[in-house]
């Protein structure tokens, strides 16, 4: 008698980006590479005056013209990418890590720990982010570590509330109850049971908070409280060259477009994250 083999079922993951998502990813990777290799990409030293005319026009020598002192705008935008992306990425990493870990811990532990921490985060969320940033930066200064910690402190409560709401739902499921019966620790529940089940929305929230931090950092720099001279991020470049609007110069338009291209691309990438997951027979 011939025995028929039972077909095995395998789970195959098919991740496909939409064309919009691929373009957005390409723009983000472009700026990431520019930020990483900025010192090797600048055609001129960012602080060197290379043009005798301020707000000089676009030319074969100066691809984006010159700024209010005659410095090369392309070089300053390339170096500004390092500070914009670096400060924003550091801030969102701290904010999301602290917020997600505390949110999951609050959902698992509950009781007084959850109540006190949630009320504190609610109080922090009630403070306007830009006003809080202005007060803190004006009080402690605009050094890069102070900026990073301020931005992280502003956006950690929102990350906490988001992660907690997800973790509360997962915490009521049967596999969590079984893990508790087995005597698993809180660290195991948070890291091995809850986090893998909320990682996708957490990553989407990470991207959105990165955009918020870029915009807030640019706003602070535009007001003169962000990255300080001789360093400059994109928001500071807009602030420095705002008068170039009267001269039809690219000195203020170019950094504005850089901010827009990065933030819009991150939003489009989040909206077009690959979601196609299918089961197929092997």
TrEMBL record:
Gene3D superfamilies: MetI-like. Its main location: membrane. InterPro entries: BP-dependent_transpt_permease, MetI-like, MetI-like_sf. PROSITE patterns: ABC_TM1. Residues 81-270 form the ABC transmembrane type-1 domain. It is a multi-pass membrane protein. The chain crosses the membrane at residues 20-38, 83-112, 132-156, 206-227, 247-270. It comes from the Bacteria. Keywords: Cell membrane, Membrane, Transmembrane, Transmembrane helix, Transport. It is found in: Cell membrane. Belongs to the binding-protein-dependent transport system permease family. This is Peptide/nickel transport system permease protein. The lineage of its organism: Bacteria, Pseudomonadati, Pseudomonadota, Alphaproteobacteria, Hyphomicrobiales.
């Amino acid at each position: 008698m011939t025995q028929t083999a039972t077909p095995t079922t395998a789970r195959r993951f098919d991740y496909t980006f939409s064309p919009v998502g691929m373009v957005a990813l390409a723009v983000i990777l472009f700026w990431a590479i520019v930020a990483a290799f900025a010192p090797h990409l600048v055609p001129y030293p960012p602080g060197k005056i290379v043009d005798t005319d301020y707000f000089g026009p676009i030319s074969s020598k100066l691809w984006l013209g010159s700024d209010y002192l005659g410095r090369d705008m392309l070089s300053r935008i390339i170096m500004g990418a390092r500070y914009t992306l670096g400060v924003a990425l550091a801030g969102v990493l701290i904010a999301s890590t602290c917020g997600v870990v505390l949110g999951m811990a609050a959902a698992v532990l509950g009781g007084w720990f959850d109540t006190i921490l949630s009320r504190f985060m609610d109080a922090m969320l009630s403070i306007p982010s830009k006003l809080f940033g202005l007060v803190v930066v004006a009080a402690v200064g605009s050094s890069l570590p102070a900026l990073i910690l301020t931005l992280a402190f502003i956006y950690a409560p929102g990350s906490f509330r988001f992660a907690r709401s997800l973790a509360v739902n997962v915490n009521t499921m049967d596999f969590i109850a079984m893990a508790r019966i087995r005597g698993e620790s809180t660290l195991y529940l948070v890291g091995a049971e809850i986090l893998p089940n909320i990682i996708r929305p957490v990553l989407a929230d990470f991207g959105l908070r990165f955009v918020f931090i870029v915009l807030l950092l640019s706003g602070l720099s535009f007001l003169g409280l962000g990255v300080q001279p001789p360093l400059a991020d994109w928001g500071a470049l807009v602030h420095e060259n705002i008068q170039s609007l009267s001269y039809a110069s690219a000195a203020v338009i170019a950094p504005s477009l850089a901010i827009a291209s990065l933030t819009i691309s991150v939003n489009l990438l989040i909206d077009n994250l690959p979601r196609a997951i299918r089961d197929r027979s092997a």
